[in-house]
Write a structure and sequence with these properties.
The complex is a heterodimer. Chain A contains 13 helices and no strands. Helix content of chain A is 76%, strand content 0%. Chain A has helices at 2-29, 34-39, 45-54, 61-73, 87-122, 127-140, 144-158, 173-207, 210-217, 222-234, 236-259, 265-274, 278-306. By secondary structure, chain A is an all-alpha fold. Chain A is globular, with a radius of gyration of 24 Å. By secondary structure, chain B is an all-alpha fold. Helices cover 73% and strands 0% of the residues of chain B. Chain B contains 13 helices and no strands. In chain B, α6 runs antiparallel to α11 (195-231), α8 (138-149) packs across α9 (153-179) and α11 (195-231) runs antiparallel to α13. The longest helix of chain B has 37 residues, at 82-118. The chains are: A mainly alpha, B mainly alpha. The interface between A and B is large, with 55 and 50 residues.
């Protein structure tokens, strides 16, 4: 277990190093001068040179990669060239909102999706099982931006029962939650369907095993068997999927944050792209990639903890 | 025998005669998927014949209108017919998705073949590179690259191709690892066949089927991905009627008219649902062992 963890951590670091290298190289692979595109066609050469120097573009490529890696080690995300503020300040201001959004939609998906899956598996081939099957497949195919637009259209524009944009009043927790409901639901829709199908499939597998049959024969109440004994084992594959899920939610958050005009990592990266503010784009992407890798690592560790039979050290590919 | 023959309906007799498709159509959800995909394909091929107007044709006096006999699904902010734009949009969706998936499949297959067959250090390096590309959430990676390349149809195809490549490479590699230990490959080796011959004539034909099925199942995912990028203004640009562009324009006028978002959103959901149902059923019919590879 320990060797596996060390190996996994080393891989994570290696992946982050490579991500940093790509982000540095990207500027060179793509045609055009990022400093020029940032300042516009009529910028004077002196300012361009200054910006190039600030972005380290005047140095040899290898040195640029070295400097980028050194910043990674120092956890220095660089400076926003427009405002002169440290990019870490922008990230600290944006990240919590994205994490809250991702976390609430994941919780929402778990709270709705898992019982739905359990119900389907335990009422096999009932009309509700079939109905759930169709609903789950349809939910899986709803992209987060379509879900977001539909919710906005129905509840904020037509019925006007929900706030449309922003985070709500500063300091007012209830208002913050009210502003969170539609975005979190939009992000959760796909995952409700996905979790319901996944839990149904893995629970069906577990329910066929002998120890469950033995418990049924012993007269243990069905509800207790389903939730206490069967679900405990059936939930394991779900944990692995949720690790990947956090990363996908971060991607979906870009759309949802824009549709509901919420500040967050998605809005930060998108606005930086529109302004061609490349240092902010780079830092934002790096932070999101880091969270993605960290969530995967966490899910893997949790996975071994939940199921001691899994020998991750020997798994490949 | 006679009793059975009477019970078989004409429909079943017809289905029995069609090899793979018959099995798909026998499943209600598979049949639903097939007919949605068929409708989509007909829209792509016969767009100019089916669409009542051109996709850029403006009818300024009747802009932002709801459904009416003249415009069955209503009009957008420039008075363009929404039905016609959605029909032409199917062409855009497919003209991005098909080449993008082909690029990813070709690149992934090549890299996976090399990594799996060479093994050792090459394989280890390839795995780390695949991991590092997959460390980006796909939308973020696409945004970062498109920010520099600029939005255009061809750039979207390339970016999607790149984003999807590691997934195919991983599966191809896993398949190669399994296949290269098969007795028939060993026999070829002992007979002195060249590496190229083994790779292209013996390993490739045996690993291509599952990859093709996965490619078919990725089509709807790529269609929604392209629409998402176009919605953000980083994919296909207006006035080209990508479904994502129609959604973005509808979003700008969301307080004036609900129709562009409603129709474009429903079209996207139904198309994806159709491709997914058809793809899943097809996969189960062709290769039951693959069932569950994507969590379904």
């Amino acid at each position: 277990m320990r060797t596996y963890l060390v190996k996994r951590l080393l891989m994570t670091v290696l992946v982050l190093v490579l991500v940093t290298v790509y982000l540095t190289l990207l500027v060179h692979i793509v045609p055009g001068d990022p400093a020029k595109s940032l300042l516009g066609p009529r910028a004077n050469p002196e300012r361009i040179a200054k910006i190039r120097a600030a972005m380290n573009l005047d140095k040899p490529v290898l040195q640029q990669i070295g400097l980028a890696l050194w910043s990674l080690v120092r956890l220095d995300l660089g400076t926003d060239l427009f405002t002169g503020r440290a990019i870490s300040e922008l990230v600290v201001a944006a990240l919590p909102h994205t994490l809250i959004l991702a976390w609430s939609s994941l919780s929402l998906a778990v709270v709705i999706g898992i019982p739905l899956g359990v119900y389907s598996a335990t009422h096999l081939d009932s009309w509700l099982d079939r109905f759930t099957a169709i609903i789950s497949i349809s939910f899986i195919t709803v992209p987060s931006y379509v879900g977001g637009l539909f919710l906005l259209l129905i509840f904020a524009v037509q019925l006007q029962v929900m706030p449309a944009i922003g985070l709500g009043d500063q300091g007012n927790v209830l208002d913050y939650i009210k502003h969170l409901i539609l975005p979190a639901t939009a992000l959760a829709i796909t995952w409700v369907g996905y979790l319901a199908r996944l839990v149904r499939a893995s629970l069906l597998e577990v329910l066929n095993q002998t120890y469950i049959r033995a418990e049924m024969a012993a007269g243990i109440p069905q509800r207790k068997i389903y939730y206490r004994y069967a679900l405990k084992n059936a939930i394991i594959p779900t944990v692995a999927v949720l690790g990947v899920g956090i990363g996908k939610l971060m991607a979906g958050a870009v759309f949802v944050e824009l549709i509901f005009t919420r500040p967050g990592m998605g809005t930060l990266i998108y606005n930086a792209i529109q302004a061609r503010n490349y240092p902010v784009v780079r830092a934002g992407v790096l932070v999101v990639a880091f969270l993605f890798v960290a969530a995967n690592l966490l899910a893997d560790v949790l996975y071994t903890y939940l199921d001691p039979r899994i020998q991750l050290g020997t798994k490949r590919g | 025998m006679e009793f059975q023959a009477r019970r078989t309906t004409r429909l079943q007799q017809v289905l029995d005669r069609i090899p793979i498709l018959g099995d798909v159509l026998r499943q209600p959800l598979g049949a639903l998927g097939f007919f949605i995909v068929l409708a989509f394909m007909l829209m792509v091929v016969f767009a100019p014949l089916v669409a009542p107007y051109g996709f850029a044709e403006q009818d300024i006096p009747s802009m932002l209108q709801g459904p009416s006999p003249a415009h069955l699904l209503g009009t957008d902010h420039l008075g363009r017919d929404l039905l016609s734009r959605l029909i032409y949009g199917a062409r855009i969706a497919l003209s991005v998705a098909l080449p993008a998936v082909s690029v990813a499949l070709a690149a992934g297959l090549t890299l996976g073949l090399i990594a799996g067959y060479a093994g050792g250090l090459v394989d280890d390096v390839a795995l780390v590179v695949f991991d590092s590309i997959q460390a980006f959430p796909s939308v973020i990676l696409a945004l970062a690259i498109l920010a520099l390349l600029g939005p255009s149809l061809i750039n979207v195809v390339l970016v999607i191709g790149l984003t999807w490549t590691p997934g195919y490479a991983r599966i191809a590699r896993a398949q190669v690892l399994r296949t290269k230990q098969e007795p028939y490959v060993e026999v070829e080796k002992s007979l002195g066949a060249s590496q190229g011959r083994i790779l292209f004539f013996h390993i490739l034909p045996n690993i291509i089927a599952p990859l093709l099925i996965l490619a078919a199942m990725d089509l709807p995912v790529v269609i929604t991905f392209e629409a998402g990028l176009s919605f953000l203004g980083l994919g296909v640009r207006p006035p080209t009627p990508s479904w994502g562009v129609i959604l973005a324009e509808g979003f700008n006028f969301i307080r004036q008219t609900p129709w562009p978002i409603t129709w474009a959103g429903l079209t996207l959901i139904i198309t994806t649902l159709g491709f997914t149902l058809f793809g899943e059923t097809l996969r189960d019919v062709l290769d039951p062992a693959l069932s569950g590879t994507r969590g379904f």
